[in-house]
Amino acid sequence: MENNATSQDATQAENTQEINCTPPFAWIRNEYGLLEHINYVFKEDGSIDWFKMVPKEFLYPNKSAFKGKEIPETIDGLEENQLCIKLGGLTKLAKIRGYSDVRTAVNFNGREIVATTTIEWIGNYETEHRKDSYGLEKLLPVRSTGSASATIENTAGFMSHYLVTAAENRSLARCIRRFLDINVVCGEEIGPDKSDKPAYENDAGQTADNTAILDALLKSNKIPFDAFKNRMNEEGVEGAEDWKDVRDVPTTQIFVVMGKVKERLEKLARDKENAAKAAAKAAAEEKAKVATEAKK
């Protein structure tokens, strides 16, 4: 009985805990498109100095700027060209600046993966504005883009196994930096040191970078390896039935099977688009038919 009472008391205590669902301040933008609770830093020309608004915890010494020298433990006294900014610092600034849409397109171009990020930023006093139909001033949105690539050669560590993510992160960082006029490079954009060991390195010291490209292609399109293997087996690719993972695909066949995968993906995309068009056409015809019968 005592244990039951104790358990009930604990449950009641949990139920009576205060739930905090009220933010400390509201994210409200003024007539200039700026957040009212943010202390902005401005340049002499009146534009926002976004770099000076980066919190210090998102900055660190750029070790490539100190080759042959001791790398400082802090960023105190360092110039912009001696610094790196973390991706989290850039996304924090982007949130403050304000955006309505972010899209990233990924393309496989032989040995490299190329990503292009497009951001639609909300309007503020720095962008164009015009009067709407009610005679009110309207701040116009603006777009920016950033492209970047990822290969086995220009990535290191675990990111060498996630080339799509590496390319996406780099293009996002570049898109934000360029728009906000930040010249400090993002850590995501920096390639590996010469001492970094390439991914997928075999006993002979050769890099199976094409294997990583194939692996990235399958993962980015959410294609299970078994489904890929079965498809290649159906299409008569020699030895496909014996593959256990992407590393079993012979290097001489990688670009052949990648071409088959891309062809299949393009066909599926076309089929989906055609089906959508057919459905829209059928719906329009049915609507017109109903309208015609209603007039009779």
Describe the structure.
- The protein is α+β, with helices and mostly antiparallel strands.
- The chain contains six helices and seven strands; from the N terminus they run H-E-E-H-E-E-E-E-E-H-H-H-H.
- The chain folds into two domains: 197 residues, no CATH class; 70 residues.
- The strands form three sheets. It has a three-stranded antiparallel β-sheet with strand order 3-4-7. Strands 1-2 form a two-stranded antiparallel ribbon.
- Helix 2 crosses helix 3.
- The radius of gyration is 27 Å and the shape is flat.
What's the gist of this structure?
This protein is α+β, with helices and mostly antiparallel strands and 296 residues long. The protein has helices at 2-15, 87-97, 163-179, 209-220, 225-234, 254-295, and strands at 59-61, 83-85, 99-109, 112-121, 129-131, 137-139, 142-150.
Protein topology:
Layout: H1 2-15, E1 59-61, E2 83-85, H2 87-97, E3 99-109, E4 112-121, E5 129-131, E6 137-139, E7 142-150, H3 163-179, H4 209-220, H5 225-234, H6 254-295
Antiparallel strand pairs: 1-2, 3-4, 4-7, 5-6
